[in-house]
Amino acid sequence: MVMSISIAQSRQQLSALIAAAQQQPQIITNRNKPVAVLVSADYFQRSEAVVKPEAETFYSQLLQLRETFAPQDDTGLAGRTPKSRQAVWQRTNAFADPA
């Protein structure tokens, strides 16, 4: 059975409320209306793992990989302007016979 306790009572009985939250969630009320729920840290972590979408996790991992392994080329291929990219493609071939 989930225990319901007022804010005033929760201030006076915080230790007991935390102990009870280790067993099951505890509802805190204000004027008989639920305003908060106190849960154990373990319960909260399990809830967070269930709620977090896999796509968000994948996307955040992708961004982290992009930051970690950013391209380090100096060829200008990743240049910010189209002119720098164009210059790379138009340079002469190093293996061609000089004219």
Kindly describe this structure.
The protein is an alpha+beta fold and about 100 residues long. It has 2 domains: about 5-45, YefM-like domain (YefM-like fold, 3-Layer(aba) Sandwich), CATH 3.40.1620.10; about 50-90, no CATH class. The chain is built from 5 helices and 3 strands; from the N terminus they run E-H-H-E-E-H-H-H. It has helices at about 5-10, 15-20, 40-50, 55-70, 80-90, and strands at about 5, 25-30, 35-40. It has a 3-stranded mixed sheet with strand order 1-2-3. The radius of gyration is 30 Å and the shape is rod-shaped. The N and C termini lie far apart (about 90 Å). The mean pLDDT is about 80.
What labels describe this entry?
3 strands; YefM-like fold; about 100 residues; 2 domains; three-stranded mixed sheet; alpha+beta
Topology:
Layout: E1 3-6, H1 7-12, H2 14-21, E2 26-30, E3 33-38, H3 41-51, H4 54-68, H5 82-90
Parallel strand pairs: 1-2
Antiparallel strand pairs: 2-3
The CATH homology group name of the largest domain: YefM-like domain
Please tell me the overall pLDDT.
Answer: 78
Give me the number of helical elements.
5
In total, the number of strands is 3
Low-confidence stretches: none
Order of helices and strands: EHHEEHHH
**Number of self-contained structural domains:** 2
Largest sheet: 3 strands, mixed
Structural class: alpha+beta
**Major sheet strand order:** 1-2-3
The second-level CATH architecture of the largest domain is: 3-Layer(aba) Sandwich
- What is the level 1 CATH name of the largest domain? Alpha Beta
Give the radius of gyration.
30 Å
Task: Report the β-strand fraction as a percent range.
Answer: 15-25%
CATH topology group of the largest domain: YefM-like fold
Envelope shape: rod-shaped
